[in-house]
Write a structure and sequence with these properties.
Order of helices and strands: HHHHHEEEHHHHHH
Shape: globular
Length: 224
């Protein structure tokens, strides 16, 4: 996975340059602030999906892994790392969480796009997560923490989709038949953010992924 991340990111860096990356990060940051009100504290109504005991256990395991990789101050750890060091941190996080979650990915694309207005996504067709590298390469702590949150969020989507297809993953995560069916119908009738933002935010798979990521990082980020 590290090879994929480095290759894609190097291409983007050559094409755009670090100055453009900074401008992209600035634009995305303010877009998100307008959307959420504040990146760190999204409205409680947006993180309200029910979580099982197994979800709580895995959220605790997630926080442990994140802490092992980034320490107690992720922003400082990332800011001290050079270009390749940041990519290595991201790759390590993705690989360790995917292993802990029991999911298989066919790749990870780290892109930078001045026209992008989101943090990343999970492609069910390609079985890949795609992440906006502007967050990883920012010097802004909010964006760095948002990158980590996004990794967890998108891997939760992988758990959702692969639970539908693989009974072993569903059993490991204690996903009920009702929940699997809800997720299945949502994926079949998924509303992208570009079509209807309110509907996108409230659909089951998004609400669940936001809740799990928030639970995983609750109390972990140092207070400003």
């Amino acid at each position: 996975m590290l090879e994929v991340l480095v290759t894609v990111f190097n291409y983007a860096r050559q094409a755009m340059g670090l100055a453009t990356i900074a401008r992209v990060a600035f634009k995305v940051y303010h877009w998100l602030k307008d959307l959420w009100g504040a990146i760190r504290k999204p409205p409680e109504t947006l993180v309200s999906a029910p979580m099982t005991e197994r979800d709580q256990e895995m959220a605790d395991r997630t926080k442990q892994i994140v802490t092992e990789i980034f320490g107690q101050n992720a922003a400082a750890t990332v800011e001290e790392a050079d270009y390749n060091g940041r990519v290595a941190l991201a790759s390590n996080l993705i690989e360790r969480l995917a292993e802990a979650y029991g999911v298989q990915l066919d790749g990870c694309e780290l892109y930078i796009d001045s026209n992008i207005n989101n943090c990343g996504g999970y492609s069910i067709k390609e079985n890949q997560i795609k992440l906006n590298g502007a967050y990883l390469f920012s010097e802004d702590p909010d964006l760095i923490y948002e990158f980590i949150d996004t990794v967890i969020h998108e891997l939760r989507h992988a758990v959702q989709f692969q639970s539908i297809l693989n009974p072993e993953i569903a059993e490991a995560w204690q996903v009920s038949e009702e929940t699997k069916e809800n997720w299945k119908q949502n994926f079949l009738n998924y509303t992208p953010s570009t079509a209807n933002l309110r509907a996108y935010m409230s659909q089951p798979v998004e609400n669940d992924a936001r809740t799990f990521a928030a639970l995983s990082l609750r109390g972990w980020r140092p207070e400003k």
